[in-house]
Design goal:
The chain is of the alpha+beta class and 69 residues long. It contains 2 helices and 6 strands, in the order αββββββα. It has one domain. InterPro entries: UCP037465_Znf.
Length: 69
């Protein structure tokens, strides 16, 4: 699998991870490893935040959206 962002820029780079949000393959340059808060919910509710954040891999695009809130 190739890095999608590099491919858009005309480069051919192997992907090392997949973004947990959008599913895009990303290389080391375009990934962000981040501890993300997780919510657990039952249908339809209530939902509760889990006690510990879980490390996840995001692409730089989804990370920017996550930071904007």
């Amino acid at each position: 699998m190739k890095c999608y962002i590099c491919a858009e820029q005309g480069r051919d780079t192997e992907a090392v991870a997949i973004c947990i949000v959008c599913g895009m393959g990303v290389c080391m340059e375009h990934l962000v490893r981040k501890d993300v808060e997780l919510w657990r919910g039952d249908y339809p509710f209530p939902a509760r935040k889990l006690k510990k954040p879980v490390p996840r891999i995001l692409c730089v695009i989804c990370n920017e959206a996550y930071e904007e809130g």
